[in-house]
Each structure stands twice: as C-alpha cells, then as structure tokens.
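Class prep. Protein, please:
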Amino acid sequence: MKVKAAKRRNVRFAAVKKKKQTLKLITVSGYQGSMSYTAVSDQKNSRYLSVNKKTGVVTVKKKAKKGTHQLKVKVKASGTASYKAGTKTVIVKVRVK
C-alpha cells in the first residue's frame, strides 16, 4: 500500500470565511478492500480541519483562521487473500491566506 499526501495546499481566506472548503489531498494505491481514514487527535488544528472517514477528503471548516494548519491522518486498508492489511500515517498541511 502506498500513501501520498500533498505537500501543502493553499486556500483563500475569503472562501473559507463564507463556507467550508473540501480538498482531496491524500491518494492511496496498491490496495484492495475497504479503506478508512482517521484524524489523529490534535486539539489546536482539529478545530479547523477534519477528514472524511470513508473518502479521505479533508475539510477546512468555515471561519478557519489565517495561517498554516496541519492534520495527522491515519490511513487503514483492510486486507484480502492477495493483499495484506496496512496502516500508514501522513501529515496534511493546509495554508489559509
């Protein structure tokens, strides 16, 4: 299983001020079976960022403050007869400017 996260993504503050923004920042290859994504607890940044458990889409919440926010995401793939189960952790960075 290969997991790749975008280095850093920029989001305009004016856009976040009006409504939440969704970003596809994590790509996974070399797996079969179901995938799950979990945000590893970080009190400061979890106020502004969240991850969808099924799709892995990162959401920048409405009225996020300016600055760089990061979220640690655990990616888990269930195994099959041909593939082993795997878990990887990646860090996603979003800059609100």
